[in-house]
Amino acid sequence: MSESRLNIILIEDEKQIRRFLTTALEAEGMSVFESETAKQGLIQCATRKPDLVIADLGLPDMDGVQLIRELRSWSSIPVIVLSARTQESEKVAALDAGADDFLTKPFGVAELMARIRAHLRRRQPETAQQESLFCIGEIQIDFSLRTIMRKGEAVHLSPIEYRLLSTLCRHPGKVLTHQQLLKEVWGPGNLENGHYLRIYMANLRQKLEDEPAQPVHFITETGVGYRLVL
């Protein structure tokens, strides 16, 4: 991250939560611009060019999923959703709409800060990211040569395994839903074939994780999708 202050848009209608989050974020050296409604938040996003958006789903003037869809129609700003909604279908809807992450209330400030740092690391252009050497722990991927090394030894991946890994590497730290991954790797005609994804994710873990049964990089978000942790 650069030394300049990071601008965060906080869209939350509960005053106490806004005050708590603003205090926590400002203590980390960030500038926070608060919005009580989705409409105010969208205006703030357009005028302040923030580094990241934190948004609640239960807003008084617009559902948070609709807010995310509107924002995604013209911006790729990272969006972290904070919500009291706990149903997996709610999380999937927000992520499919374009949210980058989802934290359920109540949450820990340390975890929120870790998620923020992970998404801010993705701000560099994805193309530039993939032209250089990409590292996941002791795994080194050279996208220009299409080579993968783990602990100094070459790892062979099938074409589909490679596409799945490449997709995850384009979005480190982000939760990718089952449908997002199926569409990206297999195409829009395979959105119901979730068993493909489970099989090939297991293959990646077998080839790239130290303990495939207890992965530290290729993480399952139960009922939602997968996340790559660097």
From TrEMBL:
Family annotation (SMART domains): REC, Trans_reg_C
A single BP term in Gene Ontology: positive regulation of DNA-templated transcription
Keywords: Cytoplasm, DNA-binding, Phosphoprotein, Transcription, Transcription regulation, Two-component regulatory system
Organism superkingdom: Bacteria
Record-listed 4-aspartylphosphate modification sites: 56
Record-linked CDD domains: REC_OmpR_KdpE-like (cd17620), trans_reg_C (cd00383)
Molecular function terms from GO: cis-regulatory region sequence-specific DNA binding; identical protein binding; phosphorelay response regulator activity
UniProt subcellular location: Cytoplasm
Domain Response regulatory: 7-120
Domain (OmpR/PhoB-type): residue spans on this chain: 131-230
GO cellular component, one term: cytosol
PROSITE patterns xrefs: OMPR_PHOB, RESPONSE_REGULATORY
Protein's UniProt keywords contain Nucleotide-binding: no
Matching Pfam families: Response_reg (PF00072), Trans_reg_C (PF00486)
DNA-binding region in chain numbering: 131-230
Alphabetized PANTHER family for the sequence: KDP OPERON TRANSCRIPTIONAL REGULATORY PROTEIN KDPE (PTHR48111:SF50), REGULATOR OF RPOS (PTHR48111)
Protein name: Two-component system response regulator KdpE
Species annotation: Undibacterium luofuense
Lineage, opening ranks: Bacteria, Pseudomonadati, Pseudomonadota, Betaproteobacteria, Burkholderiales
The encoding gene: kdpE
